[in-house]
Structures are given as C-alpha cells and as structure tokens.
Amino acid sequence: MDVNAEFCARCGTAAAEGDHAHCAVMLASIDPPRFCVECGRRMVVQVTPAGWVANCSRHGERTSTSPSVG
Amino acid sequence: MTASVDTDIIAVAREQVLERGEGLSQEQLLQVLKLGDDRLAELLQLAHEVRMRWCGPEVEVEGIVSLKTGGCPEDCHFCSQSGRFPSPVRSAWLDIPGLVRSARETRATGATEFCIVAAVRGPDARLLSQVREGIKAIREDGNDIQIACSLGMLTQEQVDELVAMGVHRYNHNLETARSHFPNVVTTHTWEERWETLRMVREAGMEVCCGGIIGMGETVEQRAEFAAQLAELGPDECTMNFLIPQPGTPYEQYEVVEGRDALRTVAAFRLAMPRPLLRFSGGRELTFGDLGTKQGMLGGINAIIVGNYLTNLGRPAAQDLEMLDELKMPVKALNQTL
Ligand code: SF4
Ligand SMILES: [Zn+2]
Ligand SMILES: [Zn+2]
C-alpha cells in the first residue's frame, strides 16, 4: 500500500487505523482500488482485460500504470 | 472364481467416461466428490485422460470485459454488482473505444473469444444498441476474434437480434444446483435461466453455462449441479470459485479449499467429457499457481486470461507461459474443438 495513503484503497477506512494487511494482499492480487487513497471517496472503476481505470470525483483518474495506487 | 463387478468409482469412470464417452450420473458424481485426498492424484489423472481423449490437447483462451458494471437490480448473493448490497462497486459504462481496445488487448494474447458482459437482469434497447455498435467497431478495427455475450435473461426477439449481430456464443450461468438456487438468488428463478439457455441453443448460438463453487452448497448439491449441467449439454461450462466480495451476503464465506476445488474440477470433467471446461473467476485465489497447473492437468481445457469483470486476474503472459510449459497449444481461431 502507498505509504502516504490517508485511506485504504480497498475498504476506504483510515489507513492509519485498523488492520489493512488483508486489504493489502487483495490489492496486490485480485482487487482493483475502490476508494481514493487521498479522500476515501468511492471511485468509479473500470476493469479491462489488461488493467483498470479508477476515477475519484475530486482527485481525478488513476490507472493501473500510475504509480501512486495500490 | 466368479468375475466381480468393479465398484471402485475411478475404475468405473475409466470404463464409462474414458472408454465410452458417457458422463457420470449424479450418484456416481457424488461418489467421486467423496473420494479421499489419497485418491485425488489418481482422479485428476483420469480427468486429464478424459479431456485429452474427448477434447484433445488444445486450450481455448478467452478474455472478458464488463460493458456495463454495477447497479444490477438482481440479488445474486455472491455478486458485487448487485445494486442491492453495500458493495464498493460503482456503476460504470465502458465506451466503444474502450471496448475496442479491450478486444484488441484480448486478441493480442492469442485468445479466440471475447466476451462482452453486462450487469443487468436482461438487456434493454440501449444496451443492445451498444453491443451492436461495439461489435461493429471491433470488426472495423480489423479484429477477427469471436464475440460472446453475457447480458442476462433474454426474450426470443433479443436472442434473434444477437444472432443477427453475429454473436457466436452466449454465456448464462445456472450458478448452482437447482435445489440451492433459491438460497442464492430470490429475484428470479433457475427455471427462468434455463428458458433463456433453451432459446439460445435453439437459435443456433453456442451455449456457455456454468456457475460458482463455494456458495454454501453441500457436496450432494455439487453433484446435482454437475448432473444438471450435463443434462443441459453446454458447448462450454465455465467454472468459477467464490471470491467473497466485500459488502455482499457472502462476504464472510471461506474460499474453497484447493483440494476440494480440484476434486470438483475433475468431477465436472467426468460429468461432461466433451465441452470446454473453463477455468474462470476465483481460480487465482482458490488454486494459486500450483493449483492452476494441477487444474489444467485435471480436466480443464479453457481459460479466461487477463482480468475479470470487477476483479483482477494473473497477467495473461503468465498463463500463456504455463500452457507452453504444459505443452498445451492455444486453440487457433479457425480450429474447432
Ligand atoms: S444478474 Fe448478474 S450482475 Fe446481476 S446480481 Fe446477478 S450475477 Fe450480478
Ligand atoms: Zn483496508
Ligand atoms: Zn479523492
């Protein structure tokens, strides 16, 4: 998981609180990010055969090639 | 000494399925599913021989994409795309250029089938026109991949429209045993699903039908389900393994244990010697790398490569490498299995 993340990209709760070890495993294997790591908003996510695109209404688009996610 | 009738289920299956090509009955499948772990290797070996005998060594590779994600009115308890559960999946539509790109990415892996999927009870005019435009655009892109669709329950008119669009195969899963279905879905019935499959078959599209293992069904219900699928006689049976999706009623379910999953794969092959048996959603989580290989050597002869609808898969290159290692050629486009 991004060390600067405020929120967990899988469950959307504060990254500093609770245990996100399972979330990290899932994000590294089968789950695309669902929540914006900066504001915790639920993102619109499109999974494609070779990647994913996630959109936060405030922080814009991230894709599977952008470095700041996961 | 009088000749004894062989009652060992593996020996019986060897004669019945491998030699004669007749699938096992529900009772026989139950015996297979109850075999101990000490017989698993033998069982997988037989399932592999059956697959090689009746299907050959080729593997059909397919990619899938979600054209319309989330917000589905149905309540399939395993599904993160149902609008009835507090799942983090938000509704989205893929635009036509995105669909064309997805088809191109899929074809680039050597895949011969590309399945366009929508989270709906059944298609409306808007969805069908997107599919029509999408297929047209994929063809204009010079992509010769075969197109499959999975758009929920259909009317006869919609079946005919899909045939006219050149859709090659239709996916519609029965999900689980008929006796278990009401515990999984309450907004429509197993019989309604069966009806769509009947129309698809009669219209001349190939039928892809399977389900999800690990939704609280008993071992008896797994045998029941395999027998019901065999009765349907699909061209392809797609095997998914539950991914407990956050926010759904099955969130807390355990992932199916690897050996159990392998036993189920082999049983499905012994129920259906001839159709494509496809490794689909949940295989990464349930089987891992080693189990995936064991599944390929235990009756599977088709896979989905790349990502799924809302979950990520292994990179396609990794699966293609595995097939190469196993000396299983990827089925070419003009080849029929
Ligand atoms: S009909 Fe399909 S998309 Fe809708 S809830 Fe059921 S499985 Fe999910
Ligand atoms: Zn988390
Ligand atoms: Zn944000």
TrEMBL record, chain A:
Signal peptide feature range: none
Lineage: superkingdom: Bacteria
Cofactor: iron-sulfur cluster
Limits of the Biotin synthase auxiliary protein C-terminal domain: 43-65
Keywords on record: Biotin biosynthesis, Iron, Metal-binding
Homology family: Belongs to the BsaP family.
Task performed by this protein: Required for the activity of the biotin synthase BioB.
Protein name (record): Biotin synthase auxiliary protein
Organism in which the protein naturally occurs: Kutzneria kofuensis
Lineage: Bacteria, Bacillati, Actinomycetota, Actinomycetes, Pseudonocardiales
TrEMBL record, chain B:
Subunit structure and binding partners: Homodimer.
Annotated cofactor note: Binds 1 [2Fe-2S] cluster. The cluster is coordinated with 3 cysteines and 1 arginine. Binds 1 [4Fe-4S] cluster. The cluster is coordinated with 3 cysteines and an exchangeable S-adenosyl-L-methionine.
Listed name of the protein: Biotin synthase
Annotated organism of origin: Kutzneria kofuensis
HAMAP family assigned to the protein according to its UniProt record, in alphabetical order: BioB
Keywords: 2Fe-2S, 4Fe-4S, Biotin biosynthesis, Iron, Iron-sulfur, Metal-binding, S-adenosyl-L-methionine, Transferase
Functional description taken from the UniProt entry: Catalyzes the conversion of dethiobiotin (DTB) to biotin by the insertion of a sulfur atom into dethiobiotin via a radical-based mechanism.
Enzyme Commission number(s) from the entry: 2.8.1.6
List of residues binding [2Fe-2S] cluster: C115, C208, R278
Pathway: Cofactor biosynthesis; biotin biosynthesis; biotin from 7,8-diaminononanoate: step 2/2
PROSITE patterns documented for this protein: RADICAL_SAM
Needed co-factor(s): [2Fe-2S] cluster; [4Fe-4S] cluster
